Inverse folding.
């Protein structure tokens, strides 16, 4: 199935292996894996962790299109660091491209961060793709994340789509009246129009917020968010969670030379 | 005739001092299909927001089934009066349609079984059950409007108020909404709709209130929609049936529904 825009609930239905697991366990489990990915620096545990992420994604059969679309967003934010790091980090010169010098420590740093990012992107995709947005929020509320925070995530996702639609409409309306962006970055009129558009969006967002709140009050909202569903943690969930804990401890032990054993001994003492 | 809504000398000013409602008084009969008509800026939406206590009048009274709306009974009133907003995107905020429809019953603190029953019933009533797991932003406008109605139906109100439910809908979407409104009325609910579509109002309504510049200009059965002068004085356009039949008023009279118009035409043709 080829789609340009993926809907998380569809991905969840399509995915295998993890979609039936308890959302709370998945959120904690993948959070541990994400945290682990940001701690380790040595190449062997980094590659082992990346290997696990790729294997799990393959086992979960997440659609490639969905993964790539998410990766593009990810790259847009993180890509800059990957390019800049080898140039900015001082140290032994690895190679030069004309006047641009790539340092060896910079390349190593870039590679470490690159592997981390890919691994984290895979784990996040896996967590959201196999859980769906609704169950993800449910898990957060059951894990005692403040309801205001969950509300913000829920509203953001719901209304971001709406505001981007409004922005597109405004752009189309400008084009229909022959507006052309300035060719230089310092074009005064383009800046003015851009500022007005952003201002209009903020104002509309404010008005929309007022109306949404009124609509919530009309349906008896008293300021308390309720959770309807209950789920039970089963044997499969426990096995999944313990496997992740084992994996995390194993890689930490590898990275910090015996850390896991030291932690276990301390717990047993 | 039992009264569902009674409005007495209602005045409302916006914070900027703009007068939105200027001594509005009228009644809505119980189990009626009431239409509130008026041009843009007449005060229709502002008036509707008073019906379940979202706006507090600066002066005047609003009674629901004889009970004056006040801070003590606001919860009770919001249970009785369901308000469907003009733009469904203002109303549908949850991550799925199911969760959004469950939002009202959850606020009523009902038990889980009852919430699930109400959500299922409401979604089936508007033919949206199969789309319950969809997020609102993946629906068409017609589907969003139906989902917004379901969100209100799940609260099982006695009075359903809809602000311009036909706005921007295609003919099929309008038919679907009309069918839902008729069903609600047949179930014994009082349905109040604001609109400026007079053709639709003439066909559907059995009670009409005309609002202009924050004042009630006329109220009564739908025969007032055949008064071209009254309508034009209040920034409204006479329905097509009225325009068509007014030249033959002496001979045929002016019909107040398509069915009646057909009968009149058949009579003279056959």
């Amino acid at each position: 199935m080829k789609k340009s825009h993926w809907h998380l609930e569809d991905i969840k239905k399509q995915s295998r292996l993890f979609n039936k697991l308890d959302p709370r366990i998945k959120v904690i489990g993948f959070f541990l894996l994400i945290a682990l990915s940001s701690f380790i620096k040595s190449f062997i545990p980094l590659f082992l962790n990346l290997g696990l992420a790729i294997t799990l994604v393959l086992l979960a059969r997440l659609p490639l299109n969905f993964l790539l679309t998410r990766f593009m967003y990810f790259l847009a934010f993180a890509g800059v660091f990957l390019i800049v790091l080898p140039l900015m980090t001082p140290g032994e010169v690895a190679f030069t491209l004309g006047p641009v010098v790539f340092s060896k420590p910079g390349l190593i740093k870039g590679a470490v961060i690159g592997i981390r990012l890919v691994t984290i992107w895979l784990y996040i995709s896996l967590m959201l793709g196999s859980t769906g947005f609704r169950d993800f929020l449910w898990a957060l509320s059951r894990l005692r994340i403040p309801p205001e925070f969950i509300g913000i995530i829920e509203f953001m996702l719901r209304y971001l789509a709406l505001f981007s639609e409004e922005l597109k409409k405004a752009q189309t309306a400008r084009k229909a009246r022959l507006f052309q962006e300035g060719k230089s970055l310092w074009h005064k009129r383009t800046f003015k129009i851009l500022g007005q558009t952003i201002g209009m969006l903020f104002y509309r967002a404010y008005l929309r917020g007022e109306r949404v709140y009124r609509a919530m009050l009309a349906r008896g909202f008293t300021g308390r968010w309720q959770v309807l569903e209950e789920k039970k943690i089963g044997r499969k969930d426990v096995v999944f969670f313990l496997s992740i804990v084992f994996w995390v401890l194993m890689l930490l032990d590898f990275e910090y030379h015996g850390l896991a054993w030291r932690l276990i001994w301390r717990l047993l003492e | 005739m039992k009264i569902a809504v009674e409005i007495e000398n209602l005045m409302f000013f916006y914070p900027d001092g703009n007068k939105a409602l200027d001594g509005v008084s009228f009644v809505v009969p119980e189990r009626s299909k009431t239409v509130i008509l008026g041009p843009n800026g007449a005060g229709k939406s502002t008036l509707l927001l008073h019906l379940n206590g979202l706006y507090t009048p600066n002066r005047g009274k609003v009674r629901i089934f004889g009970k004056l709306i006040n801070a003590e009974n606001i919860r009770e009133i919001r249970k009785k009066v369901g308000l469907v907003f003009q733009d469904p995107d203002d109303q549908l905020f949850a991550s799925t349609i199911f969760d959004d429809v469950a939002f009202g019953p959850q606020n009523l603190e009902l038990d889980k079984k009852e919430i699930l029953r109400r959500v299922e019933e409401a979604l089936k009533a508007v033919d949206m059950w199969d789309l319950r797991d969809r997020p609102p932003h993946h629906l068409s406008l017609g589907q969003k409007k139906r989902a917004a109605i379901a969100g209100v139906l799940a609260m099982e109100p006695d009075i359903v108020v809809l602000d311009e439910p036909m706005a921007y809908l295609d003919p099929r979407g309008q038919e679907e909404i009309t069918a839902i409104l008729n069903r609600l009325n047949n179930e014994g609910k009082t349905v109040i709709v604001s609109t400026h579509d007079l053709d639709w109002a003439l066909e559907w309504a059995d009670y009409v209130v005309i609002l202009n510049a924050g004042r009630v200009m006329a109220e009564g059965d739908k025969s007032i929609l055949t008064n071209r002068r009254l309508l034009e004085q209040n920034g409204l356009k006479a329905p097509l049936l009225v325009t068509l039949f007014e030249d033959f008023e002496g001979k045929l009279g002016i019909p107040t529904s398509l069915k009646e118009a057909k009968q009149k035409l058949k009579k003279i043709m056959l």
Summary: Chain B has a mean pLDDT of 92. The first helix of chain B runs from residue 44 to 51. Residues 239-270 of chain B form one domain.
